[in-house]
């Protein structure tokens, strides 16, 4: 329905575009009729092209080109010269090669120049009249030709002239300098582009009907007056972008399409809200079966609308940011747009959107133009943003949003409806993935920006912002050092931890080390020990009870651990002893180089998201895994350094780091820390966790996955393997690690029979169960790397390959496209993140049938989504005709069941739950082993068995054996999903600092970033807040 506020009449039309076309046609016909009447009074008609040659009447000199008008097509007759009553002609008019459109008298003599000069000629027609003369030529061009068929206009030209914007087409003809071929080529390109981006919006009908006998077109001008005015205002606003040489109205189609799409998105939001309100009313007031069926259809339509809205919103966002981003970075864009260092800010900024007094503002604009260029110009950031936004810097707000249309237009908290009355919103960057923009600047750039800002506003105004003047006075050459001193010592915007340093050889760069005892002292000072127990707020009695209960359960599984002997002797209090884990891993620094980050964290935390949704009320002695919350608030940095600092000739640095970590953990377990009231606290390391390469390197393990034989010897004989597991002899001759389908494997008799260490481990000083080779149990396998990024990827690669063969199609790519459609449809229906847009043979590394397919992704949650999808298809389809698929489907069901139990449980599983997890895990391994055997017998490359399958075998066997002793610690506690997030954050910091002092700079920035998170969550309360 089309209606304009303030109009007195309404008319029905099928589309908004039809109504506008009718209005324009009515106006153009009336104007053209008036112009024809004026032309008949001033001149006679003939067809031709004339060129104006202006000469001064007195001197005869030719007028300069800048003073000469552009050659304009007119309709004049050289044989009849009529005196214009308005003015006299003082220039010589030379007629050149008239192009006749009909029979002409070729015998008529040409008028001499001298005679024409003495003959009065009519005055130049008005500007409005000249603008519409190309329409006559185009009218004749599209008319049917009965004799000269070669002059027949193309059908697309006739259709465009009939239905398109005639004024714009006439402008294009004039722009092409009346060259018919150039005009047709240019118009054809524009028409094709217009059709490719055309968007039709069907509007509803009016409730009021047109009265009989009335002319609808006679009142559309009134009804669309407001719409025309709004369009004109928007066009005037963007005039600077369109007033380019050779640019026509047709070239504004991109902008028009984006504006139309924006209106469609707003309409879709409104319609979606109305449909949801209708669904709620139906659920509330009607409960019969017919209504339920209608509700299902209605909810399906709502999902379709939301899906289309997301697609359109993404297209609109890409269109908005296309010119800004492209293939250039921001610096090149600003330099190209005039936002560089040598650009005057007055040339890149337009008038502010809100000016209270126009006269005062005009005076200010005049003063700006007369001012000389200032010595200190605004900073690059302010200039670049002003150039991109097109407004003067009034009040800017920068942030991230996943839905810019909703963030701007929604009536609840949208910027357009806020009381601050924001005037505009601009998308500066579009990221293909969430959280992709990493807007971290160097400290030197921050100092330069602060200097420019202080120079612009003056020190008096800048003094209102605390620390800004001090920041502007720092030296950019040592920006990192000086900024850290300012933030830490003066502003105190970093965690109050003292950096220690590893004792290295002379000349090696200093590597900072944060002692865990200092972390504990800081948490005691700020009353934050509840973080290590998994509570939201301090509660000393509850903390004591939880820790006592934890060690009581731990004693059932490890009765010989030395901590309990010390507790019985009164040397330690279990209610004030924190169980901790040591984690280490390498992230990615500059140029994809490795960056090692080690941290210490508590076993106890706030749980996982799934567990929080399922449990309604927590027990007083709640003990949950440490997965919730920002990783800066529950992981505590020990050391971070670049790979070049501990490899090659500096490999001794890694050994020093391990010795320092072991000594620190031994100190907090034996001596502990004391608070200001004399209360003593301890922390005991119960495990070292991480991926398998970290376990091998940190433990100096002689037996690891690196020993797995991949090829035969040169003579063709099998290579002798030294073993692939630090807990048993699996992989050695006669002890196959591939034996995963039984509860009584051969390697079970070799458990802890051999020492796995190639040299004495520095971690032997940590408290652990006494006995030969018991220290090896301190190194735990990780569920995340062993299953989600290990065995599950092998399993899913084979399952996807088998499922693709069930799809119809002659090519493998076609079958994978159909498989992709099913997967994406399932994810959309069940609300699961797909993480990928296509399932391809490259994604599972299946280049040929002679290669084992295995997942090539690095996202653990993608394995979870694919496992759930395979299970859903197995339960809803009949796979009995394919024994490999059938067994694989049963394996998916078993895997999802033990994962659900783990993620919905706490730190301690009761005996029955632990046995159930182990049994489902064994079922998965048996199905997987059976599939591998059958595929091998059929000479198929599917279901490869790698060392991580053996690691999962260890995890399930340990849970089954421990279930007979009492509560069992969940294997999820030693999983490292949250630690991976922590490693990624620290590694990203390393990409934005100098490589010379990378360890120290990362440590400084980490303490500042962690301080912000601690203040945000309320662990640290700043004075005056």
From TrEMBL:
Domain of life: Eukaryota
Biased composition (Low complexity): 117-130
Biased composition (Polar residues): 104-113
The organism of origin for this protein: Cladocopium goreaui
Source taxonomy: Eukaryota, Sar, Alveolata, Dinophyceae, Suessiales
Protein name per its UniProtKB record: Uncharacterized protein
Region listing for Disordered, in residue ranges: 99-130, 332-382
Regions of compositional bias (Basic residues) in chain numbering: 371-380
């Amino acid at each position: 329905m089309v209606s304009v506020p303030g109009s007195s009449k309404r008319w029905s039309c099928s589309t908004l575009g039809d109504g506008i076309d009718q209005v324009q046609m009515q106006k153009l016909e009336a104007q053209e009729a008036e112009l024809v009447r004026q032309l008949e009074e001033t001149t006679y008609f003939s067809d031709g092209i004339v060129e104006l040659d202006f000469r001064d009447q007195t001197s005869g000199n030719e007028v300069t080109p800048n003073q000469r008008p552009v050659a304009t097509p007119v309709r004049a007759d050289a044989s009849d010269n009529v005196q214009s009553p308005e003015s006299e002609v003082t220039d010589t008019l030379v007629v050149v090669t008239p192009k006749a459109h009909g029979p002409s008298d070729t015998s008529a003599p040409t008028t001499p120049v001298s005679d024409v000069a003495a003959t009065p000629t009519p005055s130049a027609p008005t500007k409005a009249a000249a603008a519409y003369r190309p329409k006559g030529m185009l009218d004749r061009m599209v008319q049917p030709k009965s004799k000269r068929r070669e002059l027949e206009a193309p059908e697309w030209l006739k259709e465009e002239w009939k239905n398109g914007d005639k004024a714009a087409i006439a402008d294009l003809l004039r722009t092409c300098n009346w060259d018919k071929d150039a005009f047709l080529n240019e118009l054809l390109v524009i028409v094709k582009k217009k059709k490719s981006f055309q968007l039709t919006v069907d509007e509803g009908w009016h409730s009021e009907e047109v009265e009989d006998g009335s002319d609808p077109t006679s009142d559309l001008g009134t009804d669309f007056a407001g719409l025309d005015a709004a369009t004109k205002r928007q066009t005037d606003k963007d005039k600077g972008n369109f007033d380019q040489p050779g640019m026509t109205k047709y070239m504004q189609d991109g902008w028009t399409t984006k504006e139309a799409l924006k209106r469609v998105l707003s309409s879709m939001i409104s319609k979606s809200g109305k449909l949801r309100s209708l669904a709620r009313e139906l659920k509330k007031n009607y409960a019969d079966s017919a209504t339920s069926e209608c509700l299902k259809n209605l909810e399906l339509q709502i999902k379709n609308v939301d899906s289309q809205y997301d697609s359109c919103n993404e297209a609109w966002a890409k269109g908005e940011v296309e010119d800004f981003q492209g293939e250039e970075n921001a610096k090149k864009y600003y330099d190209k747009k005039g936002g560089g260092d040598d650009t005057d800010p007055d040339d890149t900024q337009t008038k502010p959107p809100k000016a209270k007094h126009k006269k005062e503002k005009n005076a200010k604009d005049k003063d700006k133009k007369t001012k000389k260029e200032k010595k200190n110009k605004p900073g690059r950031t302010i200039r670049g943003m002003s150039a991109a936004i097109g407004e003067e810097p009034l009040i800017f707000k920068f942030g991230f949003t996943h839905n810019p249309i909703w963030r701007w237009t929604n009536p609840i908290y949208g910027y357009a409806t806020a009381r601050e009355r924001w005037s505009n919103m601009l998308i500066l960057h579009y990221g293909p993935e969430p959280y992709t923009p990493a807007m971290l600047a160097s400290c030197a750039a921050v100092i330069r920006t602060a200097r420019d800002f202080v120079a612009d506003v003056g020190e008096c105004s800048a003094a209102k912002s605390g620390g800004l003047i001090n920041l502007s006075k720092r030296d950019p050459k040592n920006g990192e050092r000086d900024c850290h001193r300012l933030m830490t010592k003066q502003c105190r915007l970093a965690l109050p931890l003292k950096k220690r340093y590893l004792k290295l050889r002379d000349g090696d760069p200093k590597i900072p080390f944060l002692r865990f005892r200092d972390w504990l002292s800081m948490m005691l000072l700020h009353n934050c020990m509840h973080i290590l127990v998994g509570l939201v707020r301090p509660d000393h009695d509850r903390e004591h009870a939880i820790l006592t209960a934890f060690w009581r359960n731990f004693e059932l599984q490890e009765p010989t651990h030395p901590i309990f002997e010390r507790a019985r002797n009164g040397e330690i209090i279990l209610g004030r002893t924190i169980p901790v884990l040591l984690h280490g891993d390498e992230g990615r620094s500059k140029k994809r180089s490795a960056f090692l980050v080690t941290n210490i964290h508590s076993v106890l935390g706030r749980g996982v998201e799934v567990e929080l949704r399922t449990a309604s009320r927590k027990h007083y002695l709640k003990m949950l895994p440490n997965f919730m919350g920002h990783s800066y608030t529950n992981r505590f940095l020990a050391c971070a350094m670049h790979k070049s600092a501990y490899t090659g000739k500096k490999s001794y640095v890694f050994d020093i780091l391990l010795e320092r970590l072991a000594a620190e953990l031994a100190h907090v377990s034996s001596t502990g820390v004391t608070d200001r009231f004399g209360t003593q606290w301890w922390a005991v390391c119960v495990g070292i966790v991480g991926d398998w390469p970290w376990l091998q390197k940190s433990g100096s393990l002689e037996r690891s996955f690196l020993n797995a034989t991949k090829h035969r010897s040169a003579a063709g004989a099998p290579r002798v393997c030294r073993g692939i597991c630090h807990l048993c002899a699996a992989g050695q001759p006669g002890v196959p690690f591939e034996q995963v389908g039984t509860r009584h494997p051969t390697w079970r008799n070799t458990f802890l029979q051999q020492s796995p260490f190639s040299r004495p481990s520095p971690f032997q000083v940590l408290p652990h169960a006494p006995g030969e080779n018991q220290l090896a149990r301190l190194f735990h396998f990780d569920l995340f790397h062993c299953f989600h990024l290990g065995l599950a990827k092998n399993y899913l690669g084979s399952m996807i390959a088998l499922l693709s063969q069930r799809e119809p199609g002659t090519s493998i790519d076609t079958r994978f496209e159909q498989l992709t459609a099913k997967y994406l449809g399932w994810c959309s229906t069940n609300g699961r993140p797909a993480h990928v847009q296509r399932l391809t043979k490259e994604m599972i590394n299946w280049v040929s049938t002679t290669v084992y397919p295995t997942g090539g992704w690095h996202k653990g949650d993608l394995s979870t989504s694919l496992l759930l999808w395979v299970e859903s298809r197995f339960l809803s389809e009949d796979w009995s005709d394919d024994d490999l698929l059938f067994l694989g489907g049963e394996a998916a069901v078993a895997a999802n069941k033990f994962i659900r139990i783990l993620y919905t449980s706490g730190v301690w599983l009761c005996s029955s739950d632990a046995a159930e997890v182990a049994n489902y895990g064994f079922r998965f391994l048996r199905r997987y082993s059976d599939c591998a055997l059958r595929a091998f017998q059929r000479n198929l490359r599917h279901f490869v068995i790698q060392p991580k399958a053996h690691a999962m075998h260890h995890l399930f066997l340990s849970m089954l054996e421990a279930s007979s002793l009492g509560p069992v610690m969940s294997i999820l506690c030693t999983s490292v999903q949250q630690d991976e997030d922590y490693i990624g954050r620290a590694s990203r910091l390393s990409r934005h600092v100098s490589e010379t002092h990378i360890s120290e700079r990362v440590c400084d920035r980490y303490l500042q970033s962690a301080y912000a998170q601690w203040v945000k969550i309320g662990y640290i309360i700043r004075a005056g807040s």
